[in-house]
Amino acid sequence: MHLPDEAATLALGARLARALQPGLYIELLGDLGAGKTTLVRGLLRALGYQGRVKSPTFTLLEHYSVLRFNLYHFDLYRFEDPEEWLDAGFREHFNRDSVCLVEWPQKAAGCLPRADVTVRLAIVDQGAGRQATLLPHTPSGKQCLAMLATGG
């Protein structure tokens, strides 16, 4: 789907928020500046979070307690080796009571569980917005995207 501007990316995040269920793991793919954190900001705003939403590039993880679950936003961009994922002790956050959003999951290849949904954001042309592709990989992911398609 075409996202012509930041407002459209925020709106997609808001729509995705309405389709979330505890236990989901969503990987966020895209180059630097593709809009991954903007999507997360829209999602969190729709869940009622009013604080600052920033990329966890340096902290690796931001935790948000929202409505009915804990949401963990990871950014693995700075990882040099997938083993860093294991050393960081983040595995425990992937459970049936949480939603995990992971930017740069390829940096922990082979260590992360299978994603329920992949959200790929690509810069179309300078100033022409973004292209979003959402793919389910599990029954929970299919249910999430079906809810997204029907408006949550």
Structure report:
The protein has 152 residues and is an alpha/beta fold. It has four helices and seven strands. It starts with a strand and ends with a helix.
Low-confidence stretches: none
Number of helices: 4
Strands across the major sheet, in which order?
1-7-6-2-5-4-3
Computed CA radius of gyration, to the nearest angstrom: 14 Å
**Helix proportion of residues, in percent?**
25-40%
Mean pLDDT across residues: 86
**C-alpha end-to-end distance:** 17 Å
Map the helices and strands.
Blueprint: E1 2-3, H1 6-18, E2 25-29, H2 36-46, E3 61-66, E4 69-75, H3 83-88, E5 98-103, E6 117-123, E7 130-136, H4 139-149
Parallel strand pairs: 2-5, 2-6, 4-5
Antiparallel strand pairs: 1-7, 3-4, 6-7
Summary of the model, kept short:
The protein has 152 residues and is α/β, with parallel strands linked by helices. Helix content is 27%, strand content 26%. The protein has four helices and seven strands, in the order βαβαββαβββα.
